[in-house]
Structures are given as structure tokens and as C-alpha cells.
Amino acid sequence: MAATVLPARAAKGGRPRRSRRLGEHLAGWGFVSPAVLLIGLFGMLPVLWSFWLSFQETDLTSPGEFAGGAKYAELVRDPLMWEAARRSAVYTVLFVPLTMVLALPIAVMLNQRIRGVTLYRMAVFVPLVTSTVATGIIFNWLLNPQFGPVNAALAKAGLPQQGFFQSPGQALFALVAMTVWGWLGFAVIIYLAALQAVPADLMEAAALDGCGRLRAFRHVELPLLAPASGFLLVWLTINSLQLFDEVYVTTKGGPLRATTVVVYHLYNKAFVDFDGGYAAAVGCVLFLVILAVTLVQLALTRRASSYEVR
Amino acid sequence: MRQPSGRRFTALVTGVALAAGLASGCGSGSGAAKKITFWHGYTDAQATAIGRLAGEWNAAHPKQQVQPVFSNNDNTLQKTLASFVSGKAPSIAYQYGSSLSALTGRRQTQDLTSLVNGSPDVNWNDFFPAARQGATASGKIYGVPALVDNLGLVYNKKLFDAAGVGYPKPTWTWDDFRSAAKKLTGDKRYGWAYVSDGTEDTVWRFLALLWQAGGDLLGAGDKEAAFDSPAGQQAMQLLADMAVTDKSVYLDAGDQQYLNLFNSGRVAMMWTGPWDLGQINKGVSYGVQYLPGKVTHASVSGPDIYMIFDRKAKDAAWPFLKWLTSAEVHLRFAEQTGDLPLRASEQKLPAYKSYLAKYPGNKVFIDNLNQNVTKARPNIPEYPRISQVLGTAVQAVLLGKKKPGPALAEAAAEVDRILAGS
């Protein structure tokens, strides 16, 4: 915006009074400085510090030694790192689309004028505000292979018993199910807000033109939801690549490392093996991967939402 | 190893919630005369007991005020290390014995060897051997014993009666144990429970098995793996036979459900320590016995220690620790908490009788300390990584994903690599 204002001023030839501008600047900085300070202190500084750390051989407490790119080389050669990356990828590819695909119909339903809609909306939102630790305990109990209600129900239905979190082959999928449940409310709220922002006259016009409810959804509402979908895609992807808490409170990366995703691997390296440099290197690589994925997704979303400009 | 006794998650939540308060709490002591900050993970009765003792000390020593602060059990190592970075290290902190090797190399960690040797009134050799070993690394003393425990066989008498199985005897062999577990297993009921999350909780029970079969974890001088041996094979095979073939073992994924299941009559036997006895429901009639044996009936101890991390507070913290772990004071603490005695001489004090009357189940664990706890986990910096490797191997066998032979061979090769320094 500043770019458009400044030339206009220059064209008028008016020179802003220096003192007033300075005063405005100071006031502006005064307003933003608490946020800048906090974000700088707790956001930027740790990021820069961990970047510097990734070139060190350090146990995090005693002063480290400069190690150059050794930690990055170690990371590339570490089979556990690649395993963890593959798991994070599988998790993300399942978690993100599943959450979005399930959230959309729920949001559409909650957008209807039905009795008690507030109650339903709240019910959908509750998992999101439930603490991860509580969620973890509940799912550990629900999915307990020997005594959990889920296996009991499967047995009643004559279906085979499952190992869930205790089966190396199923744990990651159980984690997907648990986190989809936890994040669904978030995606529903975003979609719901977007649906409510669809102008009523657009829908009215579509109806007048003889457009059925389903076609109106397909050709009017759905395109208008593209920015919301784009946001969800980016946001959920970032979060699923950073998956940690849910693993920590359920499987602790097991069984047999089946749920050791990238950030859990990082945690193990940093706080079990005390290899701070390696862990920081993982963090930096993850940062770059997330940055790249996000940029691609943003570009794709922008193209999909380009009707706004037209 | 003091277990959070099924309250691991509660501890985690409280720990996180308290983190903020803790950070401010330990920073505020600088102005006062001589504040000794004392991090611990005690809850319930233990917290009350330690608070009372600290109060008693403070009343008698106005110049050496001890301030107990709840930190956490499971994450206490991480928190302590974080405090080193922030420069606000606690004067004293309760640490798992298994964390010692991660702390010995630090500038903040105080070597207590000369203090111990210089104070005959400590009577160091009065501490049980397992407790002493837990506080010692490469010949140096870094801590004062805070807790010594060990594993015993705790069983539900009613389930034994119902299955027509005789109660465990001190002379039980592995075969007796396995066949009893099999008979006790039935519809939604398991003979035994084993923590299979691959952590140290998985490993130390395996160490007991390994020692019972006459084996050991590492070779002489801790330079190479020694567990890929006939003894190791037998130990792993027992786990495979019971967990995979007989399916008589409830595999606890690390959420410590085994105790709840013992309480509800779903698990008939557990290998656990005195810390769990207080959590057994009143209605459950249980007995305690030595672990079953092969060559020996070896048990394993997870001794915990108090360590000093503040050089300036060292002189003030030392008398307090000496007092806290003296026979008379510790027995008073134990009487309120059910902890085992730290020192052999506690068994000779008059109050010991009422202690035993209050905690009859502890008798076997104390006898264990006197005769079956002879070996200790190696206190070497590589231990945490060795534990991870071995934990994964045991887990793979329990889940039936690997045969004992290959699991041991692969783990031994990995441990050799770790010990060789790569």
C-alpha cells in the first residue's frame, strides 16, 4: 500500500513535515513493539539460534564446537531420518485430505437452519479445544487391543480384533484417525465461516435462474470456498508435518518406531541422545521443506481462486 | 526407578502447568540469606512427607533454608538440563539413577566423592550396594541415594486359588513361572504383564531375566555387548514363549494400565516394585515373592539419587542431604511413604518393626536387597542409547516381529557400534 501512496505524494510535490512523520513513526512502532518484541524473542530468535546450532557439535548444555555441515551430512546418511520422513509424508497425505473431505459435508449440514444447530456446532468444535493429553488417554483406552470398547464392538460384529496403537502395522493409521477426529472441528469452522460469507443474493440469483440446490452448491458455493480450502490445505499440512504431541502422549514413537515421525525423531535426538546439532539440523531441513510445500500450495490455491480478480 | 504409578499423564499435565510457575519460583531465591532449592517429583503422601521433613530442617537451620519444589519425574533430566542453559540450576534435584551418566560430564554437576570420604558420619557403606552403585560412575560419587527399590513377583491370590495353581515359592523356576502364567490365562485374563513400550521400563525387566540366566549386559570394562549369549537367548526365548506362543502376557504399551488390570483381576502376576503396592486396591488379596529363577533369582534395582548442581550451595546442601538420608530420618520418611530402607542399619532401629507391620509386602523387597540385588546397570554415557537399542529388540520379540536370535544379534552389533564411539 505504501508503494501506491508515496508516488502520489511525490507527484503533489508536498513534503511531509519531518517532525510529524517522525512522531507518527514513533507512535506506530510504539504500538507494534510489544508484538515485535515477543515474536522476535520467542519466535525469530530461537529460529536463528537453532540455525546456528545446526552447525555445531553440542549436547545443548556445554559450549559446542563448530562442526560445519557435518550434522547435515549425518542426517542425509541416517536411515532412521529417511524412515521418519517417509512416515511423516504418509501421515500428511492421509491426514490432510481426509480432514478436509470429512469437514466439508459437516459444514454444509451445519449451515442449514435446523433446530439446535448451535448445539451441533459446539459438539463438532469440542474435540479441538480438548487437550491433546486428554485425547491421547481416551484414544489409548478406546483402542486398547485387549480391553478397549472398539475391539469389543468389533468382536460383537464378528470382525477380527485389531492391534491399533500396539501394532507396528496399524499405529500410524490409528494416529491418523485420532488426529482427524481432533482437527475436524477446526476445518468445519473454517468451511462454515466461508459458507456463511457466500452472498445470499448470489444463491438467490442462481435459484431464479432455475439452478437446483446441488448445482448451486457445485457451481456457486464450492468455487467460493476455494480460498478456505487453500488455507486449510496449507495450515493442516504445516501442522501435520510438525506432528509431535499426539505421538508423545499415545505411542511415544513406537511400537518399533512405527510412529517415529520427523519431529519425534528430532525430539529423540535432542532430548534423549542430546545431539543438539543434529536435532537443529533436522529442524532447519523441516523448515525448508515446509516452506517449499507451502509456497507450492499457495501458488496452486491462488490459481484456483483467481475468479476473485476477474 | 521411581515409577509414576499410573499417573504418568497426570504428572505430565501438572509438569507442563507448573513449568511457568517453576521458572519464576526458582528465580526468586537470590535475595534471601541461603536458599537451597530442592527439585523433586514427589506427589501425595510422599510430597507431604518431604514437606514435613524440610519444615523440620528449616526450623532448626534458619540460615540454610530448604525450599522443596515439585518438578517432575519422567522429564526431570530434561528440565535439569534446561535449567543449566538458563543458569538457574536447582541446588539439589532428585534424579533417576539411569540419568546419572547423562549428567556426569556437566560443569554444574558436583562431584561428592571428597565430601563423602571426608565425613565418616555419612557411613557410606551402610547404604545398600545397589544404592551406592546407583550414585557412582567411573569411581566417583555424584549423588546421595534417594530411593532404592527392586523388582519382585506380585500376585493376586484369588486368581491363583480360582485356577488351582499353588502360590509362587522362593524357589520357583522359569518353567514353574511360565506354566503358572499359562494356567492363569483365560478369557480376557492374563497370567503376566510386561511393559512393552521399548523404554527403560522394558529393558530393566529384561536385565533381571538376563542376570537370572547367568548372563550380563556388557563385557568386562563395558567395552562390548555381552548379551548375545546363551543366557540372552534363553531370556529372550522365555519372553517369546510366553508372549507369542502361550499368549499369557498382557503387553502394556507404556500407559501403565497393567496395575489397573491387576486391580480388576485381569492380570494375575506382575514384576514390579514396592511403589506399586500402595496402589493395589484394598479388596485385592495379594502376595509378594522373589522373582522366579534360572541360575539365580536376580532382581534389578533402579536406584534414584539426590544430586547437587550448584557449586555455591554445595556446602549448605550437603548437611541437609546427609541429614535427610540418615538412618533415623529416612526411616521416618519411609514409614509415611512405603519406600524401602536405604541403609542396612535402618533394619536395626526400633521403629523398623512398626514400619514392617505397616508395609508387610516390603519384606520380600528388603530381603531381595540383602541377597538378590547384586548387579547394577552400567553407569556409562552410552547407556541411554544402549537401552534404546535393547528396548527395541525386546519389543520386537514380544510383538512376534523378530525371533530371539536375530533380535539379539542385531542389537549386539548396534551396541558394539555405539561403544566403539560411532
From TrEMBL, chain A:
List, alphabetically, the PROSITE patterns matched: ABC_TM1 (PS50928)
PANTHER family with a match to the protein in the record: ABC TRANSPORTER PERMEASE PROTEIN, INNER MEMBRANE ABC TRANSPORTER PERMEASE PROTEIN YCJO
| Family statement | Belongs to the binding-protein-dependent transport system permease family.
**Membrane-related topology note:** Multi-pass membrane protein
Q: Where is the ABC transmembrane type-1 domain?
A: 85-297
Domain of life according to the entry: Bacteria
Gene source species: Actinomadura fibrosa
Q: What is its main location?
A: membrane
Keyword Transmembrane helix tagged? yes
The protein, known as? Carbohydrate ABC transporter permease
**Which UniProt keyword terms apply here?**
Cell membrane, Membrane, Transmembrane, Transmembrane helix, Transport
Name a Pfam family for this protein. Answer: BPD_transp_1
Query: InterPro entries, from UniProt?
Result: ABC_transporter_permease, MetI-like, MetI-like_sf
- Upper taxonomic classification of the species? Bacteria, Bacillati, Actinomycetota, Actinomycetes, Streptosporangiales
Sequence intervals crossing the membrane: 26-52, 89-110, 122-143, 171-194, 222-244, 278-300
Q: What compartments host this protein?
A: Cell membrane
UniProtKB/TrEMBL annotation, chain B:
Domain of life, per lineage: Bacteria
Record's keyword terms, sorted: Signal
Entry keyword Mitochondrion: no
Q: Does the keyword Signal apply?
A: yes
Tell me the leader sequence span: 1-19
Q: Which InterPro entries match?
A: Bact_solute-bd_prot1, SBP
Taken from the record, one Pfam family name reads: SBP_bac_1
Q: What is this protein called?
A: ABC transporter substrate-binding protein
